[in-house]
């Protein structure tokens, strides 16, 4: 062959290979439809200034406010950006400031749908619990953290390797040390939950912390099958506006949405009568037995993973868990049981077994599991007979993935034949490396699932080689 012929053939080969490479990178060969980005759905961002009631605050809201002022559009719930009771030019200026990142305050609904005002910039942050510790990393504002609750204190160096030494522990979130908090002169306290019973509520905290914005974002309350109604997604996006990191919040919300959408698509192919029944309960080491219902993050994870939860809350109940009699569990005979456990609790205690990001040895998880299985009453349960009982880390309920991480592992466990291409550790590692930006490798660290599962020869849930 002549040199020119060889060159032509090589050129054609290069073109073909490049086309395939580009095709893969652009998802040309994927058969699943891509999820709609959160800002293109019917999601309504609950921040005042979002006059056109879509998923973001931008130029369109300025136009919308102008049209309301001109009388060509009716006022909307979020049009009065500065909350002075009238919709006028000042609201346009206010929205411009939000867009430019120069706003000095922000009005929004919190995770309980109560209206709150936040002073900006929010640049001295105290955070409660894993969700908020991870959220500030996702948004890239971890260096603004000055205090953490006692649930994060033991893992402070893990979450905040660069500034752990300058971060103060302010006590448990159920009974915080208000004086310590005030001494830190924080702008913002991100609380884990609204608080109930003997646990300090957002109202208590706001009362004892004058000048500090006490914010419950709503991460505690995901809706995995309907992101438009998810307080979790709202919380991520609201935090984006509070910390002036909207692109990061949007990218993260879209990533979560793409995972939930892909799992949903596959689960929808499984007929209801072929789906597995599931009991979601707690490790005996964290109190008397409860079963998590749909309202709970674990209940949401189970729904997304296509499990049929044997525990249901009464209609209109807002409970996250219920008590189930052993007789009921035996009569329902669940196919799978997941035992949730918590290492560092909201009231400052440390529970056995060791698990989560700061653990490497699954022995404690193994022992508790054996204890649970050895209950004579449960000998004949399908889940026990078929070894379908798993201990799961607190991360699956309390991290900043809103049940999605738990769902990814659960889906793989419940329907391995449907999720052949799904590797939960790949998604988990992407979360840690790309979004949390932590130098942390799941091949060598972390106890999240016991017994571990094996995917393509790799151990998932515990470090490789751990027993
Ligand atoms: Ca808008
Ligand atoms: Ca106004």
What is the end-to-end distance?
60 Å
How much helicity do the residues have?
Answer: 25-40%
Bound small molecules, which ones?
calcium ion
Number of domains: 3
Strand order of the largest sheet: 5-4-3-6-7
Which homologous superfamily in CATH is the superfamily of the largest domain?
A: Nitrogenase molybdenum iron protein domain
What is the count of β-strands?
16
Q: Stretches where pLDDT falls below 50 for ≥5 residues? A: 23-32
Structural class: alpha/beta
CATH class of the largest domain: Alpha Beta
Mean pLDDT equals 93
- Report Rg: 24 Å
CATH architecture of the largest domain: 3-Layer(aba) Sandwich
Q: In percent, how much strand structure appears in the residues?
A: 5-15%
How large is the count of helical segments? 16
Outline the biggest β-sheet: 5 strands, parallel
Query: What spatial form do the alpha-carbon principal axes imply?
Result: globular
Q: Predict the CATH topology of the largest domain.
A: Rossmann fold
Structure description:
With 467 residues, this protein is α/β, with parallel strands linked by helices. The protein has three domains: 68 residues, Type 1 dockerin domain; 145 residues, Rossmann fold (3-Layer(aba) Sandwich), CATH 3.40.50.1980; 191 residues, Rossmann fold, CATH 3.40.50. Helices cover 35% and strands 12% of the residues. It is built from 16 helices and 16 strands. Strands 5-4-3-6-7 form a five-stranded parallel β-sheet. Strand 3, helix 4 and strand 4 form a beta-alpha-beta unit. Helix 2 runs antiparallel to helix 3. It is globular, with a radius of gyration of 24 Å. 46% of the residues are buried. The chain binds calcium ion (CA) (2 copies). The site of one calcium ion (CA) has 8 residues, from helix 2.
């Amino acid at each position: 062959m002549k040199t020119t012929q060889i060159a032509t053939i090589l050129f054609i080969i290069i073109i073909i290979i490049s086309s395939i490479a580009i095709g893969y990178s652009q998802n040309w060969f994927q058969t699943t439809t891509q999820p709609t980005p959160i800002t293109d759905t019917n999601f309504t961002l609950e921040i005042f200034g979002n006059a056109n009631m879509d998923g973001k605050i931008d130029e369109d809201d300025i136009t919308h406010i102008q049209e309301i002022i001109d009388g060509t559009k009716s006022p909307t719930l979020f049009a009065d950006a500065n909350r002075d009771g009238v919709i006028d030019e000042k609201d346009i200026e206010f929205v411009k400031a939000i867009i430019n990142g120069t706003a000095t305050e922000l009005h929004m609904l919190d995770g309980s749908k109560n209206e709150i005002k936040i002073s900006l910039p929010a640049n001295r942050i105290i955070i409660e619990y894993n969700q908020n510790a991870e959220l500030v990393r996702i948004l890239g504002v971890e260096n603004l953290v000055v205090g953490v609750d006692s649930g994060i204190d033991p893992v402070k160096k893990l979450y905040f390797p660069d500034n752990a030494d300058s971060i103060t522990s302010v006590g448990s979130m159920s009974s915080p040390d208000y004086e310590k908090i005030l001494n830190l002169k924080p702008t913002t306290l991100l609380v884990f939950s609204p608080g109930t019973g003997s646990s300090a509520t957002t109202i208590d905290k706001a009362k004892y912390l004058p000048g500090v914005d006490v914010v419950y974002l709503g991460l505690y309350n995901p809706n995995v099958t309907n992101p438009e109604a998810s307080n979790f997604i709202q919380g991520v996006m609201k935090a984006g506006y509070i910390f002036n990191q909207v692109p990061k919040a949007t990218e993260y919300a879209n990533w979560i949405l793409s995972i939930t959408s892909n799992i949903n698509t596959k689960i929808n192919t499984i007929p209801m009568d072929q789906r597995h029944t599931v009991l979601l309960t707690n490790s005996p080491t964290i109190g008397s037995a409860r079963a998590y219902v749909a309202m709970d993050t674990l209940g949401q994870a189970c729904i997304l993973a296509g499990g049929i939860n044997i525990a249901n809350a009464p209609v209109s109940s807002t409970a996250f868990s219920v008590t189930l009699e052993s007789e009921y569990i035996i009569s329902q005979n669940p196919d799978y049981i997941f035992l949730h456990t918590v290492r560092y609790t909201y009231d400052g205690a440390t529970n056995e077994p060791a698990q989560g990001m700061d653990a490497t040895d699954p022995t404690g998880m193994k022992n508790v599991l054996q204890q649970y299985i050895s209950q004579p009453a449960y000998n004949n349960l399908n889940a026990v007979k078929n070894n379908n009982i798993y201990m799961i880390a607190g991360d699956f309920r309390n991290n900043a993935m809103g049940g999605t991480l738990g769902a990814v592992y659960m889906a793989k466990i419940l329907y391995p034949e449907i999720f052949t291409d799904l590797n939960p550790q790949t998604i988990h590692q992407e979360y840690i490396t790309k979004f949390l930006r932590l130098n942390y490798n799941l091949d060598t660290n972390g106890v999240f699932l016991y017994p571990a599962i094996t995917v393509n020869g790799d151990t998932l849930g515990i470090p490789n080689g751990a027993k």
